């Protein structure tokens, strides 16, 4: 019993210590990115849970600035790729070039692409062709790439924060459902409130714009990701996650009035994502274990890109957000 007690006490101390560091980190991000507290929290949840995020919002809402700031405060090697229709897979993963050595022999040398970093911003990912999207999404899933039969592991940690503009969908290539499922969270970036926009207006148009400062290092982020997976989760929260995910399937355990609205629903990966994300959110707050409130707060970003509504539901003006709100009611 003493060993169990000591282990629990050590875990509590570790969470308290890291929770304080994460509070400082959030404040550092908030000094640069104004009025997006929920977005900042969900982006941190994504990284602490070891996943990838999809940022959806109109231009000018600081999505690029957020990713750059995260790279700085977390001590990560960050890169940015602007996705365009003519972008090729080799522009992301790299390519082999033929060189002639001093001995006169010709041989291929692999030149790494920008995907070989720790935090990659894939800007407007739906602008590139499906072939190019697949090259990035394969790297996200496997943590490595294969060129000419040779595997090249990506750095650790490795995270992708992709962006999508919900406007001007002409000429875009929407991500297939199977590829959307690889993103841990879909993070909606909305307009800031008036007070935050006023603060941003004053701070960013002066002589010295605010700059991010390093708070953590890459190794500390990996330690935090390991800690997230060691955090205990109560049975009531586990059952709540299962109830929520299984009720979001048309042929699952959903209520009849909701089932008729859902064309297809989330698979087991959604439950895994919700479990990890709830733990990460609890860690950010310095709590030992997640609660149902964490599940409720993260239900929408975990589920909205993993389910679709029937034609009848769309015809009646019912949206994904409304359905998810009804699904989480039993957890309140």
Indicate the CATH architecture of the domain at 231-332: Orthogonal Bundle
Q: Widest sheet: strand order? A: 2-5-8-1-9
Give the rounded overall mean pLDDT: 87
- CATH topology heading of the domain at 231-332: Helicase, Ruva Protein, domain 3
Number of helices: 14
Can you count the beta strands?
11
What is the rounded Rg?
21 Å
Structural class: alpha/beta
Strand content: 15-25%
Helix fraction bin: 40-55%
Distance, first to last CA: 35 Å
Major β-sheet annotation: 5 strands, parallel
Family: Belongs to the MoxR family.
Protein name: AAA family ATPase
GO molecular function: ATP binding; ATP hydrolysis activity
Keywords: ATP-binding, Nucleotide-binding
Write the layout of secondary structure elements.
Elements: H1 2-30, H2 37-48, E1 53-56, H3 63-73, E2 78-82, H4 90-93, E3 94-100, E4 106-112, E5 119-123, H5 130-142, E6 144-147, E7 150-153, E8 159-164, H6 177-180, E9 185-188, H7 194-204, H8 218-230, H9 235-247, H10 256-259, E10 262-264, H11 268-284, H12 292-303, E11 308-309, H13 311-315, H14 320-328
